[in-house]
């Protein structure tokens, strides 16, 4: 049996879903549990083609609830298990992910956002931000990476497995329909050759030894009997989550801490935003900058506040009716910065639109 | 004379257990504990419990136990078994978790012939939530949501779970219905169900007729009478599918 599909570095021209399947194999994932929903299906298609060649497994479940809970089972058994979904499937996945949050079960869920609400479109949106960052019952102690390119998909799927298993909070790769279906170039690599150490999974159930005889039994629960008991559990979760925020938070920026007008976007829209800012800088506009939160949860609150305190105007562009905007407003609460928006639920945003908006509000 | 023993696989620290006096869960879990002891599988058993009364068994045994969501025990246990086939995996749930909210998981696990064991407690009502109608509530039976008795014209007939599973599951599956009124027989069914998993044959399913005196508002005599004489008229006790014995 072959060991790895990628050795050294390989430049490829692929769809995002295909890139994700390769990244999962290279992250040494053991098993995928999945249920079909567009536009993430090809993750399963490519995984099921690669899996038998590399000693990996797959189960097509009866629905997303089952895919999420079987994923949890796989993790409990000590394997790197993962799943992927979109739209209404993401809604169902929030139930198992809330259990993973409570029990500190490392799960990796790849979301390829489609249009919402309900069935909506199977194409594209950024409308799963609120659900992916805070969708379960509880407080939303989770890590959400918003990817912008196929290179991101490859890098952050590998990183996401490490994040999940290192910190034991549910981890999400938030892609979208464009990233899922379009082809573009990226470089795939063996993480070991780049010095990336892969975190090994450990069994939460069925570890060696006899429970109660030569080791303690693993008794995992998520039901608590009293208000005080639950308070303590959740406060411990909060404390653990807050402690890791500085290590986990990621963002990308260009001139953002010097600019009067900062354009903020995430995911593929950030590519248009970055392009717009580069164009404007090249045109001689010196006071424009770009900021892209890579982790949407936790959010780079300190940096956003610093920007908001310094800049005069923010332009927030997103393919939703303000799901990122809501988070940014909360993050920068109390500052005087003027906020302008391009909000296009379920529709892509171009560089030209952002440049035009800049000139309009300047 | 041999007196009944506490199973070795029981967690003594969590005893006396938290079920209501007269509840059948303790008896079913005793049968399971005896089977775990007899088969010597305490070191490789993983036990999953549902929401509802079964969640009280989250620390019942000295075996690794996961307490999951309402209806989701079957997929969690399936996920564990698929990831590590060496483990003996048991999903434990009530009639709501198996036949209502989790029914699609039960149906599909049976259809895929998942090599897991499901033990389902049928007490004809939702115990933990206060005695509402269950898929297994008998015609005419009073519950909090059928205060004048279950009207089958409105809500249909009680689910015949083992009959359904036996119809879905194929060769290699083991399906039986036992009762807490016959511990020896029940233990035998549970043992066969777990041995069937150990042999790698296929899906194993045991429904257990059990009592809920709290919500039934019955005394000891009436509780046992309902289990032994009323429930068994509708829910026939016995083996429905045994590997190697044909369809």
From TrEMBL, chain B:
Q: Name one Pfam family in it.
A: TPP_enzyme_C
Location of the Thiamine pyrophosphate enzyme TPP-binding domain? 59-208
- Alphabetical keyword list: Oxidoreductase
Swiss-Prot/TrEMBL GO biological process terms: cellular respiration
Q: Name one GO molecular function term.
A: oxidoreductase activity, acting on the aldehyde or oxo group of donors, iron-sulfur protein as acceptor
Q: Which PANTHER family match?
A: 2-OXOGLUTARATE OXIDOREDUCTASE SUBUNIT KORB-RELATED, SUBUNIT OF PYRUVATE:FLAVODOXIN OXIDOREDUCTASE
Q: What's the protein name?
A: Putative keto/oxoacid ferredoxin oxidoreductase, beta subunit
Gene source species: Carboxydothermus hydrogenoformans (strain ATCC BAA-161 / DSM 6008 / Z-2901)
